[in-house]
Amino acid sequence: MRNKPVVAIDGPSGVGKSTVAKGVAAALNFQFIDTGAIYRSVALAAKRNKIDWHDGPKVGEEALRHRFAFDGDGNLLLDGGPVGDLIRTTEMSEGASTVAKHPEVRDALLDIQRLLGKDGGVVLEGRDIGTVVFPDAEAKFFLVASSKERARRRYLQLKEKDESVTLDEIEKAQQIRDERDANRLVAPLRKANDAEEINCEKTSAAEVINHITHSVVSRFP
Ligand code: DC
Predict the structure, then answer these.
(1) Regions of the chain with pLDDT less than 70
(2) Which residue in 3, 117, 174, 217 has the most C-beta neighbors within 10 A?
(3) Domain range for 17
(4) Residue 10 Cβ < 6 Å to ligand 1
(5) Are 212 and 141 in contact (CB under 8 A)?
């Protein structure tokens, strides 16, 4: 039995999981764990070492060679150092989605994610947290929004970082990633049966954060 709950927040890319999970973690004074950042860092490490993202066994080995941790603000530390925005590019979105389909990579990262959350008092966001990583999570949420709205949000984020992409390019790339994430054989993006689905299309991040926070506090005062 954990003293504090594990809060699992899953959903497709661009739905606002990070903003929501970060806000919920701050409100509950829990640690925020962005599992997508771990997959992104594996893609980055593989690229640095000239390993083909499509080579499952090699990328899996690469994943085992590194240490992944999070600082108090939820920023990923790769082998002890911050990776910052190096993992937030369009290229690394594509790389992460590609490496994430390999069973060897998912296996390598499963124990790491479980270790990070085992004592509870954590908000984990990803694609398979409620189904595979923590099927016994005390509170599970699944965020949804249309692909148009998700592409629009991603576009605004990337614009802020000065990446020169069009909305159309983002929507197309996102559709390909969504399909890959939802149709892969191992741990596909899926809502857990006992997760609450939240439609984020017209709801502000603040409202979703409030809703989840109240739901957790009411069950685990
Ligand atoms: O959430 P994100 O966009 O940072 O995730 C990047 C990729 O990592 C995404 O395309 C799918 C993969 N991923 C995954 O397969 N399982 C997770 N728990 C988190 C992310």
Answers:
(1) 162
(2) 117
(3) 6-214
(4) no
(5) yes
